[in-house]
Structure formats: structure tokens, C-alpha cells
Amino acid sequence: MNPYQVQNAQNKQIMKKAREMGIECEPLIPGCEDFLELSYRGKTIVINKTRSHKMPLMAGLLAKNKDASNLLLRRRGLPVPDYIVVSQAGEEAVRFLNTHRMVIVKPLDTSRSVGVTLRIDREDDLENAVKTARLHSEQVMIQQYVEGTDFRVLVIGGKAIGALEYKPAFIEGDGRSTIEQLIRKLNEDQLRRNSVGDAGSFQPVDVESKSLLMHLQELGKSLQAVLEQGERVELFSGGNILADGISEIVLDRSEDISAVNANIAVEAAKALQVDVAGIDIRCRDIRLPLNDENGGILEVNALPDMIDPSLFFQGASTDVFQSYLQYLFEE
């Protein structure tokens, strides 16, 4: 099957890179993209996108359950922000909010940002966030909000391949362009596509969205305002917001992450026995070791995205799909 006929972006890149490397690669079941069968030098394996044949079943189950994941991470001495698990916004949830002043709420056993609400600092918002999370999971995790920025470290076979930073979209003035022009330029720069036409995770900022226009109005600005040189405008408000509604700028921080934090990411993957993982970290400074003041691990993803790393990791030596395929056939 031609990679261009495959629908899943990860599978397209795996098939394309495999053939470049002389590896036979086809869907195991014609018309089904859940499994790819790869053959190389007399060895045949079956994988599920970026989930390898080497990962134990238990590892995937542990990674999906945030409570179990955090327990094992803490046992290994790794930094995890304080949290509780509840089924409703009762007294325990309110006490936790009052203790930490700001929290995030997320479904206990879902992946990505579905049902996640950020920056909650009021009881009524907490109740609404718990209701939203319970649409996706019977139990809900309420976690201490960590000041800083989100990072994703890609780990393959016990090695930290690189790190990406995800920042809520912002624009910076040049003294000539309007806010609308700067937003359109941001969309063009971030909406990168690979050789088979698939884009990364960036959600283009809608210049006509009501939330954006209201946010600009609160700042005393409009789409036609011209920003001064170096003037920065955040495109999303600082209040509580659903995580999947935020457009995030992606930046390569592979050269900036400290050796300590890279090792923490590797240890986090090992703690859950996940051989190919995306380690979500939130911290103030990725160059400094994680601790109570600088942040911690938010999640271990057992089916990590490799499209963003393939688009944003810089340097010819960082080919994430090649690294993945080489690992699959390592003895």
C-alpha cells in the first residue's frame, strides 16, 4: 500500500521511512490501520503506530490510569505535583483547592487534553470543571497547578531523543503590522506540514472567534491595532479554560533541557515500563532540575505523537521515525 493512501499521519511517516530504510511495511489487515507489519533481515514484527511490540500490556494500562502512574512515579522518587482523585466536587475537593489556591481538573483515565480544565481558583469553577471531566471518566483527578510552561520529552528505548516546548499562542509587535496580520503570520509559521502533507498539533488561531475578540477588548485592543516593536500580546486569557481550546506554539528545546531532566524523563518511562513514551513536564525552566519550586511530571503517554517532533526538532541528526524504526529492530 502506498503511504499516501494511508489515513493516519503516524502510520504514513512510519511506512515512508521504513521503505527508505529497506524495511518492508504494510498494514497487517488490509483497510485497517491499527496494526503495521514490518519485516527486516528475516525478522517480522507487528506494531500499533508508535506503540512498539516490546511494550508490555500492563504498561499501557498503567499509563492510561493517572492515579496508578503517579503512584509509581512517586515510588521511584520522581517529582509529581500534589493531587487527589474524587468523583465529585465535595468537601475534599474544596479543601484541596483552598490549600493550593489554583488547580487543574482532568479525567482520570483519558489521554491527551480531553476534558481538562486549567487554572481553576474558584469553587464554582471547580464544580463545573469536575462535571466536564466526568463526561469522560467516572473519577476525576484534581492536581496542583504548576506555574510555568509545558514540555514534552520523547523517549525511545531508554534514551531522551529531544524536547518540545508548548506555549499558549502569543504575538510580538514589529512596529508595522496589525494584530490580525501578526496572527495570520503566526498561523503560517506554525502550521508546518511534512512531506506527505500532514500538519502538526498546532490549532490555527481564529481571528474571528468571539473569545479572542473579547480578550483583545479586555486588553483595550482590536484586530487592527498596530503593536509597537517588541510589544507582546497573549492570545488567550489567564482565566480557567479548557486545555483543548488553546492554540499552542511549538518550540524545539532539545538543546536546552538539562541532563538531569532528560534522565528524569527516561526514569519516568522506565517506572511504567513504557519503552516509547512522551513525558509531559510542566516547569518554570527546563534548564534547571525539576523540584517542588520548578515543577514536575504531569503524564506519561504510551502512544506518543511523533509528528510534532519530526516537524520541529532541528538538526539533520534528529530523525525521530528513523530512531523509532532502528529501535524496533534492535536485538
TrEMBL record:
Domain ATP-grasp as annotated: residue spans: 70-329
The keyword Ribosomal protein is annotated on this UniProt entry: no
SUPFAM superfamilies in alphabetical order: Glutathione synthetase ATP-binding domain-like
Keyword ATP-binding (UniProt): yes
TM stretches of this protein: none
InterPro entries referenced in this protein's UniProt entry, alphabetically: ATP-grasp, GSHS_ATP-bd
One Gene Ontology cellular component: cytoplasm
Any GO molecular function: ATP binding
Protein name (database record): ATP-grasp domain-containing protein
Origin organism lineage: Bacteria, Bacillati, Bacillota, Bacilli, Bacillales
